[in-house]
Fold these 2 entries.
Entry 1:
Amino acid sequence: MWANETRFEQMFSRSGKMKVFEFNIGKGIYSFELEGIETEFHSHPAIEVILAENGEFSIATEKGVHPNLNFAIIGANLKHKLSALNCAIKIIMVEHHNSFVVSCLSQASIDLHKGYFFDPTDYKRSSNVINSLVHSIQNGHAAPEYDERVRNTIDFLNTHDLEYGQMLQTLCAISNLSESRLSHLFKSNTGISLKRYLIWAKLKATIRRFLNDHDDLFTALLTSGFYDQPHFSRSFRSMLGVKPSKAYNSRFVQVSGTRNQ
């Protein structure tokens, strides 16, 4: 999973550099380290694992604040806020494999059925479990769990740049489903609407182009289907919890590992 460092670009973390280990849209795995971050409430369709490299962090959900944490797992589409201003953290995001992840965690006595799991103690055992399940996904031992028509829809969204109206017409033709049926099936499988997933897909495409294709941020966001900088900023803040102006500043991201697909 960890590979030789390859290049530096301006990106993320207002108080330090961010190291990207993996940004793999095809596998649905995104892994990075950073420090000195505080987000607003946000949600995204990926399970998020947060591990403290040093110090402690806190997580707030709509049910309350959980301070002094070393390890946390946030379920997909759960609104949350992260504060790690004095802490270096590793974040691993996994999408498309919710049932597999929940099952693996359950075998390790980590219960995610409430939508989250917080641990203020040493996370070494939990970290080993996470590394094991990520390795299984990387090596194709866990297939995406959705209906085949939903899998085809996600594959299409992750590989094409379309506006919402064009997208619906095309996806209905590909899936041989009506707009209402496809929308219902997609949300029941993923927990997120087609329209919101399209925003998520555009965000991922923007970051991938920025990391892989040496595009500047503005070119990457326009190429990925955002109308303009404000459109991108609103979407970024809604799903990742920070303004791009705080994320893309004069710091460095160190890119290594798998950034493709």
Entry 2:
Amino acid sequence: MRDIITSTTMVDAYAQVGDLAVARAIFDEMPERNSVTWSVLISAYAKNSGRESLRLFLRMDLEGFRAEEMTYVAVLDACSSAAAVAEGRIIHESVSDRGLGRDLRIGSALVDFYGKCGQLETARMIFSELPIQDVILWTALITSYAHNGHLPEALAIFREMLLAGILPDCVTIVSVLSACSHGGVEGDGWIHVVRMAWDYDLELSLAHYLCVMDLLGRSGKLELLEDLVTSMPFEPDAVAWTTFLSACKEIGDESRATRAARKLREMDSNAMAPYALLSNMHAGVANAED
């Protein structure tokens, strides 16, 4: 048993640093494995290779090992990433057969899976049948509706969550801000940003700033957007400058677009995408003038 524990710890350690090749080699050389060993490797692959994670899950089942709760959560996430609808349904059946359908973590993973597959009625049904609804579960449902373009419904579910006495976490706010941005409700977005600190005691992360940038870009407020990119308490990354560049392209602001492209080129001298966007923008302006 000591060898299994030691080897499993090594598999997990290499998986944590992203070295799946070594983790897999140690796993394959193990004379004995247990359900924890399988779970560790399946979870690692779920973050990097959804299809391989699914193959390992099926192999584990064939070898007679019972999946743990964390394994189901990981493999359902893999199904979501790989758009493996049929496999996800089979795993859902396995969950039900083992009487784990009321487990909150697995339930949240199922809501997320069906939401990403566009099956919102099933996602809502699973949500409603769970005995407890925590912030992770509510966020999974909000994200499901926002992901599928049902933006008013996503915001309505958020309000429903608040009325139920559940406060949002940082991940919830990212989904809500994204829904506000894509739904064209800029005012609501700003309200949620202000309430993060005052009502929810949450700090703005880079992900929240990126959502606000998208909100400003879609509203055509490039001056505010540029001010935010250059003054936020985080070093603007490629995503931030690309968001700014894309907004400039939509509005036709060549001067600001050029500044954004230069910043992106400073980050990666081999990056051609910024100048391709800029070139397309120049061509569009020229065609409009003709």
